[in-house]
Amino acid sequence: MEITQESISMLEPYCSEFLIHAADVEGLQQGIDEELVSKLAQWCSIPVTYAGGARNLQDLEKVYVSSGGKVDLTIGSALDIFGGSGVTFDECVEWNKNH
Q1: Which of 9, 56, 77, 85 is deepest in the core (most CB within 10 A)?
Q2: Positive or negative, the Cα torsion across 56, 57, 60, 65?
Q3: Is 72 exposed, middle or buried (0-12, 13-18, 19+ CB in 10 A)?
Q4: For residue range 50-63, what is the model confidence (pLDDT) as tens digits?
Q5: Taking a C-beta distance cutoff of 8 angstroms, is the pair 59, 81 a contact?
Q6: What H or E segment, with its residue span, contains residue 20?
Q7: Does 12 have pLDDT greater than 80?
Q8: What angle do CA 83, 52, 40 make, to 5 degrees?
Q9: Which terms does the record give in the GO molecular function aspect (predicted)?
């Protein structure tokens, strides 16, 4: 499904939260889709988590800034507990404590 303002508006009344998988970048560890993150912050009035492309703590910061703190980020294959080397679980916990 293409993520647009119209598709968000159509689905939002039936959801309590969105988990948006950016399939084009997911699992590649090549960076997040900042434009999509920014649009999600504008379009969504319910909690939203973005997944796809995250590499490191800088990507957590980019999502935070791009969304004005409205969008959360899930880190998958880059995370040490999943075999990645881009960021550790402990670093993510510490970042979240400070934000």
Answers
A1: 56
A2: negative
A3: middle
A4: 998 899 999 999 99
A5: no
A6: strand 18-21
A7: yes
A8: 150
A9: 1-(5-phosphoribosyl)-5-[(5-phosphoribosylamino)methylideneamino]imidazole-4-carboxamide isomerase activity
* Inter-CA distances, 57 with 2, 5, 13, 37, 89, Å: 27, 28, 33, 16, 10
What is the average pLDDT across 64-71?
96
Residue linked to tokens 């999502």: 63
pLDDT at 38 over 90: yes
pLDDT of res. 2: 87
Q: Which two tokens stand for residue 15?
A: 């959801």
Mark residue 70 as left, alpha or beta (left: phi above 0; alpha: psi -120 to 50; beta: remaining). Answer: alpha
Contact 63, 75 (CB under 8 A): no
Encoded tokens for 64: 């935070």
